[in-house]
Amino acid sequence: MSCPREQRVLIQLTPAGESVLIQLMALTLHLDPSARTPLYRQLAEQLSASILDGTLAAGSRLPSVREMAIEQRVNPNTVARAYREIDLAGLVNTQAGRGVFVTEAGTGDPEKAARSESLAQAVDLLLKVAREHSLNLDQVVALLRQRANSARVPEKNDDV
Question: Does an H or E element contain 74, and which?
Fold first, then answer.
């Protein structure tokens, strides 16, 4: 049985005015590889909670995927997936070449984050069933489009 991992993560804030303001915060993360919850989900949930409770302020820069993977001793794909989850939830914004930053919206709407998390879990289940039935991603997307058209679900929904 493995102990939960506890690490310190340094968060760098974005530029304030003409100068760069760097604030170091201690954020303790507990990742338990023996838990039933996948590591990426543990990381996404803990980062989401830290954003929603204000521990990570709007504008805070998260460590790069590589830095977080080294710090947490996990595969970079695990971190990338966790970052993608919280990005889809609207809690962070990924800026190519610059980093991942906590959004203003992310710090103020826990209900939106909960809805997004619920949807992410449903998508995970859909993908699991698709794999069990040997469906590829194109087939799953085609099925989703077909069902969305028959249910008249809008292509783009800003409330999700």
Answer: none
Cα torsion through 15, 109, 29, 126, rounded to 10 = -120
pTM of the predicted structure, to 2 decimals: 0.56
Give 10-residue mean pLDDT values along the chain (160 residues): 40 39 57 90 91 84 91 93 92 89 70 68 86 91 86 58
Structure tokens at 95: 């800026």
Tokens 């085609």 belong to residue: 142
**Rounded CA separation 152/51 (Å):** 34
**Nearest residue to 102 via CA among 23, 6, 7:** 23
CA 82 to chain centre: 4
DSSP-derived secondary structure for 75-139: -HHHHHHHHHHHHHTTSEEEETTTEEEE-TGGGT-HHHHHHHHHHHHHHHHHHHHHHHTT--HHH
CB 124 within 8 A of CB 81: no
Separation CA 91–CA 105 (nearest Å)? 7
